[in-house]
């Protein structure tokens, strides 16, 4: 469906969908009627200070030149933004961390057989895009935290290079041991692909951008359209971030002078084999030369060739060498002290480093944050001060693996644990639909804000547009979820941006917000992520940049100014119900899978289906998945539901009464509320990866960015670790019990009789 067709459908649908505000009624969560009136005036003044021309001006400045971590323009950008924050009245500093950031010294990829071919490994300048010719300042295309090496071997095509793809190769009797794999981007985070390849015995990994993903199958390639051209390459980190993000040499501590650093050869998040990204123009000769079986239909991309699996006849040599130096990363930290509760911090951030010029990723999001801070500064000039402290953050070194934010969080962990109420993140932005993910304690807050901000193009609220999209394009499960709630459903967060250390390491309630879905998004992590591309294909009038600033600003102000912190627990309890049902269903599916496989083996059905040309290998019978005792988790979710309902009833009555709670009790209540996210963590972390401490949301060990909810239980079941799964059911129940206790304490503070 084209963007225009979709928009026409949505216009027809949104008139029939109720808004969250109309459905729920009353003042915003956390406000009395009197407080809501003051908030409305404040937000109107905030909106009046937003100017799309300024967003465009700042974007022109920040994305004028390449600015990866450690670059001269990156440092100048940090100083430029720090100057703006100071001008707007913020106490501002640039905080430096020295992080490991390898850059290429040598890169080569050759095909030796059946005929010689040397990959160009170059992105061609485009006359219509002036910054694409800033070659002297551009980092070449490479994967950060790949190890160096010089390897030669037969080539095997592994589709997306995720575990189930290797299961398919195993069934066909194809091994990658001692060979070099080529995988297309997509389906999982790029760092998972060399990780799995190394586990399967491969000696090298090549990643390429198939035009089926973000190239000519999606739309006209750049510069005719906005999609990836033949020589466009996706750079990116391949560190094993499911172990831990941040500087590979300083897990758990900030990368500052005097920090204990691991030897490079002992850093566990570096790849085990060399990895290189290439364009589809460089990949096509390699894939064309492959022999072996024809790839399954689902594995075939959009190149004009027959996709084969290999091995043979293609034999390639991959050679990489890196400079493993420490590089300075510059975080900009701007604070505006709260007038009443200065030790309660509301944090708002976006990163400022880019692989090249980064007009979309990250500058389009960064300028919205600047617009928010400027509007807050204009409110301060009228004599207003925030009730709670506001902290605006511009992170460096996000692209290599969330280094700037992770090192800052690790360095200030003790203070953040005491003071941080919530963190609001953005990354990139473009025209289209509003996306929001995060802690479900904040779901009602996000829905209320999204109901009050209009989509710039359609003139209806952004939440109405989102709900319409789910009604039209969502699957049955998504529509059922939507029917249960008013407002904006939040998706749970895995990893992939700077909310990760806040949420999953320290247990700070977090959100990730942006607009997108209607831009021609084929420039990701390439030299073509430029001002010329953004102005034509992403958000030419910066209208969605202003919309993001309106939403981000409202979220920040409501968290700052609320009489009662706008944490709400019935939505969280509803999602916990869903996650418990999912892990129970996952175990049932494993059991049914085992029973089906065993029956097929016993009855010889695999032999009947065997195709000699494909060389499938029939599996053996296996012990069926056992029954697990979910009673602790069932009891915990019932108790959580009851506590959430009691708290909601108590706070609804108190806010409606307008009676003051008393300053001491209000501060105590705030402390209980913003620490509820901490209740969902454990100091020893998840099994096998102690850096990740959150027991409700975590990136998957083999998905990278993709979230695993109830990760301890879910991943144990996926790995068929039945004893571990039973233990994790108990831990998850304890975590939910801690949360329930905090909610009950909060309810009693508001209404001692609750």
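^ Assign residues to that structure.
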């Amino acid at each position: 469906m084209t963007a225009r067709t979709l928009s026409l459908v949505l216009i027809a649908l949104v008139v029939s969908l109720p808004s969250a505000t109309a459905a729920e009624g009353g003042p915003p969560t956390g406000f009395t009627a009197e407080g809501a009136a003051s908030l409305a005036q404040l937000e109107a003044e905030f909106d009046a200070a937003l100017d799309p021309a300024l967003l465009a001006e700042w974007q022109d400045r920040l994305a004028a030149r390449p600015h990866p971590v450690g670059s001269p323009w990156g440092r100048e950008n940090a100083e430029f933004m720090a100057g703006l924050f100071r001008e707007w009245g913020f106490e501002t500093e640039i905080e430096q961390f020295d992080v490991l950031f390898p850059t290429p010294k040598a890169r080569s990829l050759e095909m030796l057989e059946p005929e010689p071919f040397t990959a160009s490994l170059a992105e061609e300048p485009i006359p219509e895009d002036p910054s694409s010719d800033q070659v002297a300042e551009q980092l070449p295309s490479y994967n950060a935290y790949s190890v160096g090496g010089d390897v030669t071997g037969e080539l095997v095509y592994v589709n997306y290079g995720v575990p189930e793809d290797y299961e398919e190769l195993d069934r066909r009797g194809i091994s990658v041991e001692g060979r070099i794999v080529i995988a297309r981007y997509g389906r999982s985070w790029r760092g998972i692909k060399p990780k799995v390849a190394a586990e399967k015995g491969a000696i090298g990994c090549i990643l390429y951008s198939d035009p089926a993903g973000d190239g000519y199958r999606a739309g006209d390639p750049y510069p005719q359209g906005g999609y990836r051209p033949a020589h466009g390459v996706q750079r990116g980190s391949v560190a094993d971030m499911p172990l831990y993000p941040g500087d590979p040499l300083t897990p758990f501590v900030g990368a500052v002078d005097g920090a204990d650093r691991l030897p490079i050869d002992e850093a566990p998040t570096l790849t085990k084999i060399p990895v290189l990204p290439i364009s589809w123009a460089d990949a096509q000769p390699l894939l064309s030369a492959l022999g072996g079986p024809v790839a399954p239909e689902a594995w075939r991309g959009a190149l004009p060739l027959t996709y084969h699996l290999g091995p043979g006849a293609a034999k390639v040599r991959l050679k990489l060498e890196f400079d493993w130096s420490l590089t300075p990363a510059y975080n900009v930290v701007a604070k505006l002290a709260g007038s009443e509760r200065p030790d309660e911090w509301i944090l708002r951030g976006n990163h400022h480093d880019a692989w090249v010029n980064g007009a979309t990723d990250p500058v389009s999001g960064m300028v919205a944050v600047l617009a928010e801070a400027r509007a807050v500064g204009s409110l301060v000039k009228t004599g207003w001060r925030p009730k709670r402290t506001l902290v605006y953050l511009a992170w460096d070194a996000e692209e290599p693996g969330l280094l700037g934010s992770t090192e800052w969080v690790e360095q200030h962990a003790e203070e953040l644990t005491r003071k941080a109420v919530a963190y609001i993140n953005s990354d990139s932005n473009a025209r289209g639909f509003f996306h929001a993910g995060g802690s479900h304690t904040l779901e009602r807050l996000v829905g209320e804000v999204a109901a009050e901000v209009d989509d710039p193009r359609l003139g209806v609220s952004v939440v109405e547009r989102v709900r319409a999209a789910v009604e039209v394009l969502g699957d049955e499960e998504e529509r059922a979820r939507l029917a249960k709630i008013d407002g904006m459903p939040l998706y749970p967060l895995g990893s992939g941006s700077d909310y990760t250390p806040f949420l999953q390491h320290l247990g700070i309630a977090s959100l990730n917000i942006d607009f997108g879905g209607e831009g021609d998004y084929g420039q990701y992590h390439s030299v073509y992520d430029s001002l010329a591309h953004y102005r034509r294909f992403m958000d030419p009038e910066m209208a969605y940049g202003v919309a993001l600033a309106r939403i981000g600003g409202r979220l920040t102000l409501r968290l700052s100014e609320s009489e009662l912190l706008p944490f709400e627990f019935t939505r969280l309890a509803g999602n916990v119900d869903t996650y418990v049902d999912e892990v129970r269903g996952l175990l049932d599916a494993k059991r049914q899978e085992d029973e089906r496989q065993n029956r097929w083996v016993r009855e010889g059905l695999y032999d009947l289906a065997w195709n000699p040309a494909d060389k499938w290998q029939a599996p053996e019978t296996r012990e069926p998945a056992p029954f697990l005792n979910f009673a602790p988790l069932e009891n915990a979710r019932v108790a959580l539901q009851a506590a959430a309902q009691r708290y909601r009833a108590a706070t609804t009555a108190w806010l409606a009464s307008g009676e003051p709670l008393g300053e001491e009790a209000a501060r105590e209540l705030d402390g209980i509320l913003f620490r509820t996210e901490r209740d969902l963590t454990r100091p020893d972390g998840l099994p096998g990866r102690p850096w990740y401490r959150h027991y409700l949301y975590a990136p998957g060990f083999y998905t990278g960015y993709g979230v695993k909810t109830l990760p301890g239980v879910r991943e144990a079941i996926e790995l068929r670790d039945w004893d571990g799964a039973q233990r994790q059911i108990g831990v998850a129940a304890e975590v939910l019990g801690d949360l329930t206790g905090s909610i009950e304490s909060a309810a009693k503070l508001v209404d001692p009789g609750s």
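The first strand starts at residue 91 and ends at 100.
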